[in-house]
TrEMBL record:
Record bears the keyword DNA repair: no
Gene Ontology MF annotations: precorrin-6A reductase activity
Lineage of origin: Bacteria, Bacillati, Bacillota, Clostridia, Eubacteriales
PROSITE patterns, A to Z: COBK_CBIJ
Keywords for this protein: Cobalamin biosynthesis, Oxidoreductase
Natural source organism: Desulfitobacterium metallireducens DSM 15288
Record protein name field: Cobalt-precorrin-6A reductase
NCBIfam families: precor6x_red
Protein's pathway: Cofactor biosynthesis; adenosylcobalamin biosynthesis
Listed GO biological process terms: cobalamin biosynthetic process
Pfam families: CbiJ
C-alpha cells in the first residue's frame, strides 16, 4: 500500500520505517531538511519543506497515496487540521499517531498551564532565571507575554544556522542560547540547570520521546518548579495512541 507519513518527530520516522519493513511503499514528508536527512539515512523516500493545501493534495495524487499518516508533533495543530481536510478532499483515510502521554505523579513543583501566556506569567512569579525548553518556533510569542521579557531567559534550540539566526534576530544573546541536539538525560539536564542557576523550567507535554519525563525528574531532584504546557486536546477521527493498535489499523486498510 502506498502511504504518506508526515513525520515531524523521531517516533514518526520510526513508524515510517516499521511500515516499510511490513511491505508498504512509504513516502516521508518533513518540515526541515535536517529531518529529511535523518529519514533518508534510514533508507526512506523523503521530501522536506512546508506544505500548503494544494501542495499536499498534489503530493497525494502524484504518488497514488492510499492513506495519510499524520505523525507530526503533538502541538502542530494547523498541520493536523490541514492534513485531515486534504484527506477528505482526496477521499483517502487519515490516521493520526498520537504520541503516548507520560504519568507525572503528584508534586507541588509540577505546574500545568493551558497556554503560553498563562505559563509565561506563572514562570515570572516562580523565578527570575527561566529555562525555556519549548523549541524555537514560538519564541516571538513568548517575548510578548507581559513581564516575561524582563526575566533572565535561557533557551535550548537545535544547533542549525537558521535557528540561531532566528534567535539572535529576536534579541537573544549567545550566553542565553544553548544549541544542542537531544535526547537529553536527566543527569544532563541537572548539570546544565545547576550551572545556569535556573529557578524555573518551562516545557511541553511532549511524551517520552520528547524528553518530558527526564526534565520533570531533573527538576524534582533539583527542587525547582517546572511548568508543563498542556497538549492540545484533539479527539478527531483516526486518532490512535498505541503502536500495536496503529499498525493494526493500517493493515485493516488493505
Amino acid at each position: 500500500m502506498n502511504l504518506l507519513v508526515l513525520a515531524g518527530t523521531e517516533d514518526g520516522r520510526g513508524l515510517a520505517s516499521e511500515l516499510e519493513s511490513r511491505g508498504h511503499q512509504v513516502w516521508v514528508s518533513t518540515l526541515t531538511e535536517y529531518g529529511a536527512e535523518i529519514a533518508e539515512s534510514q533508507g526512506l523516500q523523503t521530501r522536506f519543506g512546508a506544505l500548503d493545501e494544494e501542495e499536499l493534495f498534489s503530493l497525494l495524487k502524484q504518488n497514488l497515496i492510499m492513506a495519510l499518516i499524520d505523525a507530526t508533533h503533538p502541538y502542530a495543530e494547523k498541520m493536523h487540521e490541514l492534513a485531515q481536510k486534504v484527506c477528505e478532499q482526496a477521499g483517502i483515510p487519515y490516521l493520526r499517531w498520537e504520541r503516548p502521554r507520560i504519568h507525572t505523579g503528584d508534586s507541588p513543583l509540577i505546574h500545568w498551564a493551558d497556554g503560553l501566556e498563562e505559563a509565561g506569567k506563572l514562570a515570572s512569579r516562580l523565578g527570575r532565571r527561566i529555562f525555556l525548553s519549548t523549541g524555537s518556533k514560538n519564541l516571538k510569542d513568548w517575548l510578548q507575554v507581559p513581564g516575561f521579557i524582563e526575566q533572565e531567559i535561557f533557551i535550548r534550540v537545535l544547533p542549525s544556522s537558521e535557528v540561531l539566526l532566528h534567535c539572535e534576530a529576536l534579541g537573544f544573546k549567545p550566553y542565553q542560547i544553548i544549541a544542542a541536539q537531544g535526547p537529553y538525560t536527566q543527569r544532563f539536564n541537572e548539570a546544565l540547570w545547576e550551572q545556569l542557576k535556573i529557578e524555573v523550567v518551562i516545557t511541553k507535554e511532549s511524551g517520552q520521546v520528547g524528553g518530558t519525563e527526564e526534565k520533570i525528574k531533573a527538576c524534582l531532584e533539583l527542587e525547582i518548579p517546572i511548568i508543563v504546557l498542556k497538549r492540545p486536546q484533539r479527539e478527531g477521527p483516526g486518532r490512535v495512541e498505541t503502536i500495536n493498535e496503529f499498525l493494526k489499523r493500517v493493515e485493516e486498510l488493505k
